[in-house]
Amino acid sequence: MTKEQEGALSGYCVLDLTDSNGAYCTKLLADLGADVIKIERPEGDPGRGIPPFAGDTPHPEKSLHFLHRNANKRGVTLKLDTVEGSNILKRLVKTADVMVDNSPPDYMAGLGLDYSVLSEINPGLIMASITEFGHTGPYKEYKGSNLVDFAMSGIMITSGYPGKEPCLLPGSPAYDSASVHASVSIVAALYMRGTTGQGQYIDTSVHVTSRTGLYPWIIPNYSYALNPGGPPPTSENRMGAQIYPVYPCKDGFIRIIALTPRQWDALMRVLDNPDVLQTEEWRSFMYRIGNADDLYALMLEFTTKYTMRELFEAGRREGVPIAPILSIADFYNSPQTKAREYFVEVDHPVAGKADYPGPPYKWTETPATVRRPAPCLGEHNEEVYCQELGLSTDDLASLTGGGIV
Q: Which of 58, 99, 206, 309 is buried most deeply by CB count within 10 Å?
């Protein structure tokens, strides 16, 4: 872990009521220096049970999914659906800058903790809610999941091979996309508050943001199609290897992005200008799409002559994007990740030492950093409730005994 450094959001306090489906939003804020206080129910966030686990031993403090998404945060426990718990949250809100939740629509309102109430306590509060389909609209009450949101966004139809079933991306891309959108909106709202002094409410729909976050370039196509005289709407189907094909090589696989004639000519130089691909029609992107199966069969003869690294380096030299398809071990040991110092050692009191993914960007003046491990369950109860909120140790013991914290 790095030493304490001033981050872009240092000095801001964020109350994090999310579970694993929204934790990446507040993780991004924490990496930027915000003091993120993760508020879990007394029995713990269900995300603590998501495998895999450190040492392959199921344990609430060893979920790799939880450990990554909650690094840099402090942690307290609190039962919100009690009068005492609700009152404690309201006291925390008084000095907070941001609150993030991903509970179902109207859940917070049912507890008397919706934005209309909390903004009376703290007019500068920025509250972001992440829900499956937003707080308004015909799907408001529908249940969702990463699979449902990914499919209903319209993206899944493009994923996979024609004539075969669509493919779901690994991980939780729909929820992560929503988290990124919410975090960017929060930063913008903080900036605006510096001018107006007022907080605001941010309503983030996983359904909507998974579309714009994972497949954004189709949005302008639809917009252009709505203009009089514009092109017809772009049809969508599973394109397989038509546009961004993956080819085997000597020691694995590579992906090639050769869209323009310039990129195609560069690819030909990489492959030593094979005669069979020198005819003029192959320089046409649309021709290559229409003859993707034939092109794939022809390309195999040439890509299999080289290693991933040889093709990657040649592509960089000639000016065509060629990316190796790396295993996790290959990515970890990549010269690029080593040079960027992407992985950061973190020492967790229960899970032990491990290398964690660091922030995905490098800033010079206010760097994003990994400063502390994910909190153990209730680790900072005394620090937050007694030292900062002013409760006595007897008060805290009483609340703990009553199942409130």
A: 206
CB burial readout 170-179, b (16+ within 10 A) else e: eebbbbbbbb
Examine residue 225 and state whether it is found in any structural domain, yes or no.
Answer: no
Q: Nearest-CA neighbor of 209 among 230, 231, 184, 179?
A: 179
Q: Which of 54, 115, 107 is nearest to 347 (CA)?
A: 54
First CA to last CA across the chain, in angstroms? Answer: 29
* Domain that residue 289 falls in: 246-326
- Does one domain contain both 178 and 258? no
Domain match, 299 and 362 both: no
Tens of pLDDT, residues 85-108: 999 999 999 999 999 999 999 999
- The length of the chain in residues reads 405
CA distance 111 to 358: 36
Task: Report the SS3 class of residue 134.
Answer: coil
Question: What CA–CA distance (Å, rounded) separates 143 from 219?
Answer: 25
DSSP states along 209-269? HHHHHHSTTHHHHHHHHHSTT-PPPPP----TTSSS-EEEETTEEEEE---SHHHHHHHHH
- Per residue in 224-279, pLDDT (tens digit) is 555 666 555 555 666 666 678 899 999 999 999 998 999 999 999 999 999 999 99
Specify the DSSP class assigned to residue 53. B
Number of domains in the chain: 2
Token pair in block for residue 195: 């001018």
Phi, psi of 349 (to 5 degrees): -60, -20
Closest CA to 206 of 49, 14, 13, 19: 19
CATH value at residue 122:
3.40.50.10540
Amino acid at 347: D
* Any domain includes 226: no
How do residues 366-382 score in pLDDT, each as one tens digit? 999 999 999 999 999 99
